[in-house]
Description:
Oligomer: single chain
Strand content: under 5%
Membrane topology: Multi-pass membrane protein
Subcellular location: Membrane
Pfam family, one: Bax1-I
Transmembrane segments: 6-28, 96-115, 121-140, 152-172, 178-198, 205-222, 242-260
InterPro entries: Bax_inhibitor_1-related
Helix content: over 70%
Amino acid sequence: METSLYFKTLLILSIQLGIIFVGCFYFLKKAKESYIQGVPFLGLEFIGKKNSRGELDLIPINPDPINEDEKNDSSLVTSDTSNTEKEEEPTKQQALMAKIFLVWMLSMFGMIIFARINTAMGLSLMTITSISFSPLLGVIMLEMDENDGLRAILLTCFITVAAAIVGMYSGIDFSFMRSFLFFGLCALILIGLVRLFFGMTTAMIRAKAIAGAILFSLYLVYDFNRLKQIGDLGVNDWSTALQIAISIYLDILNLLLEILDAMGNS
């Protein structure tokens, strides 16, 4: 029995998102277990505090032991110099996350490039992207309140379903949004560069994140609508399904990151 383009696309999408979310939940679970047992997790220790809702919020700390035996002036200078050098050197956890981030970036760009050339290679790189992103997402959620992070995931899922319904069943052709979305994305990238090099206030970061969340929500509507239009043309192959799935996949990840950014700077 031949499956439809919709089925192929949603199958790829659901598997990849499942890898990310299950991996992230497992990461948070192990962090909580480490906190309960009082042992480090990936070089980090945690202190637990109750948030405004009475939920446990794990706060990662990177303890820097202090040498209390050195009390004379010369030893203080030596100790300060040593501590400065330690602060400048990346911790094991930072080095590990940097490697994972590098793998994620390379596999993501490789996924975008090779998906058009070879379906199997594109799908493999997409899987590597998902696997490597899950611990990064876990770290992002721990750096804020992971309870809010879980709510952000639920909100992202809700917006995705709503966008799919609007894009595929409203009967509206959303192709007119293409130029608007492109220039909106360019503006968002430009603002991100300004933030990176010049910094932004918390209010500006939150406003940018909200605008980004709106933009990627519209991208979801557009891409789901594109899926319907291509499916209606009779196109039904795994290569096309993978390319559309990647577009929607990136929309969802960017939407989630913008929502997390907005929550983290509220």
